[in-house]
Amino acid sequence: MDITLTSLEAEHSELLKAKIASQIASQGGWIPFSRYMEMVLYEPGMGYYSAGAHKLGSGGDFTTAPELSPLFGAAICSTLIPVLESLKAQGQPTQILEFGAGSGKLATSILGRLHELDFQLDSYDIIEISPDLAQRQQERIGRTINELQSQTQCLWLSELPKDFKGIILANEVIDAIPCDAIIYQNGFWYWYGVALENNQLTWKVGSPVAQDLLPHNLLNESFSEGYVTELHNPANAWMKQVAKHLHSGLFLTFDYGFPENEYYHPQRLEGTLMAHHRHHAIQDPFYLPGLCDLTTHVEWSQIARSALAENIDDVFLTNQAAYLLDAGIGDIALEIGDPSNPETFLPISNSLQKLLSEAEMGELFKAFAFSKNLSQLLPGQTLEDLPGLRGRNRL
Ligand SMILES: C[S@@+](CC[C@H](N)C(=O)[O-])C[C@H]1O[C@@H](n2cnc3c(N)ncnc32)[C@H](O)[C@@H]1O
Fold first, then answer.
1. How far is ligand 1, taken at its centre, from the CA of residue 91, in Å?
2. Pairing state of beta strands 246-258 and 365-372?
3. What is the distance between the alpha carbons of residues 130 and 48, in angstroms, rounded to a whole number?
């Protein structure tokens, strides 16, 4: 692939590479892949998310559903409103908390839709690991709050408050949490980490993986020699913490991934790691460290088990198209656009196509939700009564 870099970009990537190399040297010549991924994405001032790369949208490296269209956030409001209304009816604050809000577009589309529906939200808070993105979010959301003359309070928090009552959202956040890589050789699983050879970052096999860390699919199926996949202990630990801190309400996230039987399928020989640079998908995770986004697919079964360990009511997984259609995205599109006017309706129908088509985001992307103490808020109702979540549970 032919990518032209400015001298500043090339220098930035070389500096981060040197820092990773020195970390590898100080650890005896090998670091786990999760440490490498943490450095390339989040090393202060140098990682992809910590430094100033443009990242999201058409001028960046990748596009997400909220970047494509405000219809995505508007449809999500259909799921949120019954929960928010019951909080309000009980005299409790109506609050949404979003993890990893990117450029802030999901927040502004939700705030805009709630305003249209005349719902007064008390707070929309954000937990964002990237200082650069947090600053962009503050600018964009601040503008929207002013334009709407909204009374909603918006704060950037460093951690999830204990006993949170309300709604927790995350779009494409779990795929950005560092994972480990493992490789199958001679009948055993080994950590697959990062070393430096001839001044190039490269894969290197480490010690054997303890059996109790391996998902049962990896112990019970047979795999080809050299099969590579990922383990997601940091993402699972994150999910457990979020479930623990939710006192009552709803957690809703969207991301690409599969349940374990598809994720650890013997034919998925090379795992799911992928880098993105200027809308190119790149399979080499060592390509231009710090200038590429690096992601992994989500393994939903273990995410669900991590949440279930924290006394939640129930979990739900469906594909993004089924979720959005059940949440009424079609009707919302007709509300905001006029299909008899092709000029204004074409962009709307193009974004609907991207969000819903099986060949684009409709099938690979999933909606995953759980509730906790929902019956305290919506007596007699379960997660599967909420708009968006009334279809087939894929877990
Ligand atoms: C792929 S981007 C998605 C951004 C946005 N949600 C969207 O859909 O456009 C991942 C986002 O998650 C943030 N992030 C990753 N890990 C996080 C964590 N543990 N807590 C909060 N934010 C996190 C990143 O900084 C970034 O904003």
1. 31
2. antiparallel
3. 9
> Cα Rg for the chain, rounded, in angstroms?
21
Atom 25, ligand 1: residue with shortest CA distance: 130
In sequence order, the 6+-apart residues with CB closer than 8 A to the CB of 112 are 70, 73, 74, 144, 148
Pull the structure tokens for residue 40.
């390339």
pTM listed for this prediction: 0.96
Using the Cα atoms of residue 157, residue 159, residue 163 and residue 168 in order, give the sign of their dihedral: positive
Give 28's contacts (C-beta < 8 A, 6+ positions apart). none
CA of 379 to the centre of ligand 1 (A): 33
Q: Can you point out the beta strands (E) in 187-268?
A: 188-197, 200-208, 228-231, 246-258
- Identify which of 129, 174, 241 to mutate to test ligand 1's pocket (most ligand atoms within 8 A of the CB): 129
Measured in Å, residue 57 CA sits from the centre of ligand 1 at 14
Going from the first residue of the chain to its last (395 residues), give the mean pLDDT of each consecutive group of 10, the final group possibly shorter: 77 95 98 98 93 72 92 98 96 97 97 97 97 95 97 97 97 98 97 97 98 93 96 98 97 97 96 91 93 96 97 96 98 93 92 97 97 94 96 91
Pocket of ligand 1 (CB under 6 A): 49, 56, 64, 66-67, 99-102, 106, 127-130, 133, 171-173, 176-177, 238
For strands 188-197 and 293-295, give the pairing.
Answer: unpaired
Half-sphere exposure of residue 183, counting CA atoms within 13 Å on the CB side?
16
- For the record, the structure tokens of 246 come out as 């939710």
Which residue, among 188, 189, 168, has the nearest Cα to 180 in the 3D structure? Answer: 189
Order of strands, sheet of 228-231, starting from the edge strand that comes earlier in the sequence: 200-208, 188-197, 180-185, 228-231
